[in-house]
Amino acid sequence: MKIAIDAMGGDNAPKAVVEGCIDAANEYEIEIYLVGIKNEIERYLDGVTTKKGKIHILHAEEIITNEDAPVQGIKQKKDSSMVVGLKMVKDEQCHAFLSAGNTGAFLAGSLLKVGRIKGIDRPALAPLLPTVKGGCMLIDAGANMDCKPKNLIQFAIMGSIYMEKVEGISSPRVGLLNVGAEETKGNELTKQSFELLKKSNLNFIGNIEARDIYSGICDVCVCDGFAGNVVLKNTEGLASTIMTLLKEELMKTTISKFGALLLKNSFRSFKKRFDYKEYGGAPFLGINGIMIKAHGSSDGRAIKNAIRQAKLLYDNNCIERIITDLKDTGVNDIE
Amino acid sequence: MKIAIDAMGGDNAPKAVVEGCIDAANEYEIEIYLVGIKNEIERYLDGVTTKKGKIHILHAEEIITNEDAPVQGIKQKKDSSMVVGLKMVKDEQCHAFLSAGNTGAFLAGSLLKVGRIKGIDRPALAPLLPTVKGGCMLIDAGANMDCKPKNLIQFAIMGSIYMEKVEGISSPRVGLLNVGAEETKGNELTKQSFELLKKSNLNFIGNIEARDIYSGICDVCVCDGFAGNVVLKNTEGLASTIMTLLKEELMKTTISKFGALLLKNSFRSFKKRFDYKEYGGAPFLGINGIMIKAHGSSDGRAIKNAIRQAKLLYDNNCIERIITDLKDTGVNDIE
């Protein structure tokens, strides 16, 4: 498998990206094209040998930063690591593209440069949320604002395939994000989507509420990109606020500081259970190529896990499977 | 001020409700009508004298439970504590109604029995979320699913009045819940609402993301009831999951148990900072009477604080102020 990786994207680039690539190439038989400013990449790669995979450098002069407007960035910075990487997939020289850079540019670039799978109206960004029982795919988490029921069904199909093939869950439980469990609850979109999901051959478990996501009630949580983005960011914000406030309390007195010291391992073990880095990145499903968006703050481990994700998507022919399932379910006959 | 209180609503009713009423009547010059099954209320009230306020019992034979369908419950259980309490406001014998019971029935009953303020198209349920800097009003948190921009402007006006008059914040900062800070972000609803909010005379600070709510970026967070409900339930679910997992870690070893013991006070102080009970209940704003929905798990303190809320809404003529502000802003000339 060949994968193009944006060496310049993310808060810790290129160091963390190169480190993740080295780890991955030691473990997997893959060919990595690290795209970006050559001598900056070489700083971390020089003299390194890898056990199983190969790493090539593909020079690209420009960088799309978080300050760049997405579409403009893609259109104007033609020699950026993002655009050059995407072009590798478009030209079928690579099977996958991975970036920890500007999310908007990543989404716009995937659509503009690589394009959709035939039959998918709107590709969806689909991160995994940590739950008590493992990961729950949130699809869509922000790529599509005003959605139609048909879009949500396509999200559900793609999410199910991902959770089965990449996470190894047989017959993944699909839940529809809603304001209550009853069938009649929700807005027009969820009411109509409920009917369609019920008729589908997915393992649809019905409406779920945002409070139940973390208990692991479902494997795929389907919603429009507005609601999904609210869940994702609310989760990030609340978790970080709770940790900040807790730290403040623990540093208040000598006794509490001593107590916190005794609990160092417990806190570390706790933190690990809520660590997105274990899951790698968020696939952008529905693009005619494997697209993985890693978190901006990814370290080497997160990048390595994102490469692993891309490899599983490739090894399990997930894109082909999406195309087949779309035909089988007849979702595209729905208006 | 006269307030009707559903003595039978909530997980700890009627005990917690009666206790909260006694505390409130010791502190405020109010007249409380405790509505519910007389002898059950008397069990906790017998022989009690209150310092400043008065408590009356108003017998009602039936109870609307959480299992009752909202509208059906209101229509069929005419002699329930909920319906009899609401009727006290409708008949202008009380200024306010408070319940910790079935939320759906509370919302439906408020609309059916008491009705909207003239000029408010859709009343909104508006709880306060805890933030690092105090409470942030989330409006609407689930009463209205598919909203129009006009509804969101009305929510913003009502929320601002509440935060100014009840929480004492001058010129409350209004944020529009969205997927990004930029003006062009969001779905059709938020894009159109942004334009209207920008033109209003509210202290509109622009789009806010769900991650920023807890840092106290705004005093009023405006959104449709679907997104608001997602935020509210996501917050509840995540906070409780984090606490459960943390407790599990702390109970794992002898050392961690000892550390946890030393941190008992820290955890208590931390918990208090995230305690909704401090805020009382969620006002249902836009109804032609003061309506407070207390949390189902309310204890006496939460009930007392909810009564305090109702009193502040009354003392500051908030309903009249909503009517005036609606006229001034001309929001109702918008289609």
Explain what this protein looks like in three dimensions.
Two copies of one chain form a homodimer. Chain A has 335 residues and is an alpha/beta fold. In chain A, 45% of the residues lie in helices and 17% in strands. In chain A, the strands form two sheets. Chain A has a seven-stranded mixed sheet, sandwiched between helices. Chain A has a five-stranded mixed sheet with strand order 6-7-10-8-9. Chain A is globular and about 60 Å long. The first copy, chain A, has twelve helices and twelve strands. The two termini of chain A are 37 Å apart. In chain A, helix 6 (149-165) packs across helix 7. Chain A has two domains: 1-120 and 286-335, Isopropylmalate Dehydrogenase; 121-277, Isopropylmalate Dehydrogenase (3-Layer(aba) Sandwich), CATH 3.40.718. The interface between A and B is large, with 58 and 58 residues.
Provide a short characterization of the protein structure.
By secondary structure, the first copy, chain A, is α/β, with parallel strands linked by helices. The first copy, chain A, has two domains: 1-120 and 286-335, Isopropylmalate Dehydrogenase (3-Layer(aba) Sandwich), CATH 3.40.718.10; 121-277, Isopropylmalate Dehydrogenase. Helices cover 45% and strands 17% of the residues of chain A.
Key descriptive features of the protein:
homodimer, 335 residues, alpha/beta, Isopropylmalate Dehydrogenase, five-stranded mixed beta sheet, 12 strands
